[in-house]
């Protein structure tokens, strides 16, 4: 579903880009006979860089490889084509040493320190006390708290920490999680526009702005606008947005088995005294079957066993819980000395065992997980984590069959039966988001105050320009490690390397866009269409075009591509270039209309049971409202 919609959107988007860039190809050909050699080279350079932009956009949309790997290929292509891109080797590698890249890496570690202190979890635990089971109060509280936190630490880990809390809050209060999770994601994006540290987009935009117009962002330079935008978003989410968000998931009980409606695929059988399977291992019997049957649990003399079950020898009287289609199961047990136990209804209490620590959990696949794009079999997941696979949910759709060959995507939810040891391993692995109903108690106020103090110190040092933000955040990382809030090994796990590679790869593309005159050319094409409008309207059109682009590709890619174009457009119409930089920056954090444009939207897609169109119905009105409000406020606050 995702790929089909992305292909349609990509064709439309590339068509729009080609409409602006096609004339350059014709012009370059005409230059063969009409202009001097130097002019010819200049136009060919624009054509090459423009083609590279289209190629990168297409690859980001189709994702034949992870986005981070695609981004790493950009510097290579720039150097190979340096005759036209004008990018040297040093410039192509400049993204790795750029202040924005260093700062973003450090911010991920600072965010982990805040999480490890228990501050986010403690705050989440208080929301239910404040709101009870009132949905609108829950939406308001989640939006406010998420926005505040996301304004000073990276918004992606904030959402990762809040998804389990919000889902379990919904389950306990019998509220649809669908009503709460879109506000959670949107609030993290809106909160990220309040300060420089709120999102990697702001940090990258600041560096691009410094390079192009010698005006980096101050820590609180756009806070007044960010707060207004956040308040507008909050009001929208508790009024119009609240009624537009569908109730895709309804918790009718505290049982995940019932909520997933998986009982029809779970059957308990008993091994008879005369079974030909006696003495054989479960792995021997079930491993090479050309049927979709899985043994979830074995019970022998009242004691329950689960994965790894392959080595268990089958004995008379053993009870096996099997996940399979009933018709397939009946064919399998025929003439094998296996009796169905039709009077036994499989429920969550039967599968779970508090004594042995067996528990049914939901695991969300985040955007940067190594499992995205692979099957359960390919990553050897069940053997690696000693877990039993029950079902997989993609948006609203649930799958119960051929699960081991199911290709996982970001946002998918996996229903598992695990042991206590496996649960702890999964909780410590940032490739997963665990949705369990355990209260978080392993925090202390001293750790919380220490972590918040470190982040506050970083903000003060950077905002007062005592030291650069890159050095301030690196100092914060050292402080987090030495105070044992982040373990040394955690530093590497905390960093989202895909984002780092994305920044490192795209920063030199921005240099090529500016150096070759491509930004000026694209600005010319846009102004041919929009030049008849007043500057504030042109500013709004730039905002909206960037927001549309962000819904399809990453927010950081939108900033790199659009800020040089916006600055050139501002110069050509005699407008304030910083106003255009701000418009593009805010628009890059406005991916409300698509679940694929922003990491936090992908994180909530599966847990909320959403459909692709839900984001369009809820997010598009908010984008239109902000496309009017933000350009007007920018023109008032900074002049245009």
From TrEMBL:
Molecular function via GO: monoatomic cation transmembrane transporter activity
Annotated Gene Ontology cellular component terms: plasma membrane
Entry-linked Gene3D superfamilies: Regulator of K+ conductance, C-terminal domain (3.30.70.1450)
Keyword set includes Zinc-finger: no
Gene Ontology BP annotations: potassium ion transport
InterPro entries: Cit_transptr-like_dom, DASS-Related_Transporters, RCK_C, RCK_C_sf
Origin: domain of life: Bacteria
Stretches that traverse the bilayer: 44-62, 67-85, 139-163, 184-205, 225-245, 449-482, 494-513, 525-546, 552-571, 578-598, 618-638
Coiled-coil annotated residue ranges, if any: none
Protein name in UniProt: Di- and tricarboxylate transporter
């Amino acid at each position: 579903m995702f790929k089909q919609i992305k292909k349609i959107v990509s064709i439309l988007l590339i068509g729009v880009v080609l409409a602006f860039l096609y004339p350059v190809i014709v012009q370059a050909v005409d230059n063969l006979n009409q202009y001097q050699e130097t002019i010819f080279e200049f136009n060919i350079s624009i054509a090459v860089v423009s083609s590279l932009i289209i190629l990168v956009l297409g690859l980001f949309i189709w994702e034949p490889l992870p986005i981070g790997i695609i981004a790493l290929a950009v510097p290579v292509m720039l150097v190979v084509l340096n005759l036209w891109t004008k990018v040297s080797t040093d410039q192509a590698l400049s993204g790795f040493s750029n202040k924005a890249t260093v700062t973003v890496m450090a911010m991920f570690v600072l965010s982990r320190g805040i999480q490890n202190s228990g501050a986010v979890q403690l705050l989440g635990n208080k929301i239910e006390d404040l709101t009870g089971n009132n949905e609108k109060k829950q939406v308001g509280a989640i939006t406010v708290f998420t926005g505040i936190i996301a304004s000073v630490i990276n918004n992606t880990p904030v959402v990762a920490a809040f998804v389990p809390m919000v889902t379990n809050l919904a389950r306990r209060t019998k509220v649809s999680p669908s009503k709460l999770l879109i506000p959670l994601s949107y609030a993290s994006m809106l909160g990220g526009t309040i300060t420089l540290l709120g999102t990697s987009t702001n940090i990258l935009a600041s560096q691009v702005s410094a390079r192009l117009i010698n005006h980096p962002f101050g820590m609180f330079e756009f806070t007044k606008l960010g707060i207004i935008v956040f308040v507008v978003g909050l009001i929208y989410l508790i009024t119009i947005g609240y009624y537009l968000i569908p109730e895709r998931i309804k918790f009718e009980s505290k049982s995940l088995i019932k909520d997933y409606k998986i009982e029809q695929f779970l059957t308990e059988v008993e091994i008879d005294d005369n079974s030909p399977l006696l003495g054989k291992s479960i792995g021997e019997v079930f491993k090479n079957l050309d049927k979709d049957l899985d043994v979830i649990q074995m019970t022998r003399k009242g004691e329950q066993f689960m994965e790894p079950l392959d080595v268990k020898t089958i004995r008379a009287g053993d009870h096996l819980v099997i996940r399979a289609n009933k018709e397939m199961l009946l064919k399998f047990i025929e003439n094998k000395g296996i009796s169905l136990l039709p009077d036994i209804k499989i429920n969550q209490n039967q599968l779970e065992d508090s004594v042995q620590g067996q528990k049914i959990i939901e695991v969300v696949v985040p955007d940067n997980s190594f499992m995205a794009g692979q099957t359960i079999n390919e990553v050897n997941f069940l053997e690696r984590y000693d877990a039993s696979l029950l079902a997989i949910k993609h948006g609203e759709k649930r799958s119960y069959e051929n699960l081991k060959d199911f290709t996982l995507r970001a946002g998918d939810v996996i229903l598992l039966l695990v042991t206590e040891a496996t649960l702890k391993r999964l909780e410590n692995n940032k490739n997963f988001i665990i949705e369990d109903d355990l209260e978080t108690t392993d925090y202390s106020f001293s750790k919380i105050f220490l972590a918040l103090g470190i982040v506050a110190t970083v903000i003060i040092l950077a905002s007062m320009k005592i030291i650069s933000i890159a050095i301030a955040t690196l100092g914060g990382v050292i402080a987090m490690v030495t105070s044992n809030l982040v373990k040394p090994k955690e530093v590497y796990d905390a960093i989202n390397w895909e984002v780092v590679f994305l920044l490192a790869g795209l920063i030199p593309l921005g240099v090529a866009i500016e150096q070759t005159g491509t930004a000026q050319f694209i600005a010319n094409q846009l102004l041919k269409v929009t030049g008849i409008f007043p500057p504030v309207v042109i500013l709004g059109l730039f905002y909206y075009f960037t927001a549309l682009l962000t819904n399809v590709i990453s927010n950081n890619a939108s900033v790199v591509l659009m800020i040089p174009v916006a600055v050139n457009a501002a110069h050509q119409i005699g407008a304030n270039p910083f106003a255009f930089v701000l418009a593009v920056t805010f628009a890059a954090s406005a991916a409300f209309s698509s679940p694929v444009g922003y990491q936090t939207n992908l994180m909530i897609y599966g847990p909320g049971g959403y459909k692709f169109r839900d984001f369009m119905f809820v997010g598009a009105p908010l984008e239109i409202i902000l496309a009017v409000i933000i350009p007007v406020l920018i023109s008032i606050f900074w002049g245009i």
